[in-house]
Amino acid sequence: GQNIDQPTEMTATEGAIVQINCTYQTSGFNGLFWYQQHAGEAPTFLSYNVLDGLEEKGRFSSFLSRSKGYSYLLLKELQMKDSASYLCAVMDSNYQLIWGAGTKLIIKP
Amino acid sequence: NAGVTQTPKFRVLKTGQSMTLLCAQDMNHEYMYWYRQDPGMGLRLIHYSVGEGTTAKGEVPDGYNVSRLKKQNFLLGLESAAPSQTSVYFCASSQLAGGPVNEQFFGPGTRLTVL
Fold it and tell me: What is the share, in percent, of chain A residues with pLDDT greater than 70?
């Protein structure tokens, strides 16, 4: 079966750095997406990786290792507004997104 | 641009009642999707459409029907609601299926409770 695993919850301090991991087993691979979802709101796109390596976008970076079925999202200089759930999703061979359950990130002052 | 809009935002149904959720997008996207999101689970695809007049089943299609008569609209119907369909429903759209510029854009969601 297809499976996306990520931690349920993480806590970090304002101004610090946090890494959210995602491991996956899917039928085919056509890219990995990270989305941010604030409580009660819709998911919004953060990043996309299809090749191995690091993609940097401001305070957020995303890394992919296809051979290990592994990705992480790195958030630097954490701000209170970064408190949200972070969703990892893999596009499978049918170009459908398979979603993880999300990691709830709690930022403390 | 409004992006992706959904109506209604909230709804309470009794078991056995029917309803239709409306999704509209003004980005001229080809692909549209209906997901449900339940606590502790990832988004699950109910049905999707790859263009006007087409629909296809996703991971959890039972109990739902869809129609895409116009490119900008994607309707999700519940013919006989059940408590197991209590969930938050999200509509999404994308220009194509995959790739770096083809991320899915989501509507604000519909919170449905079936008593």
Answer: 100
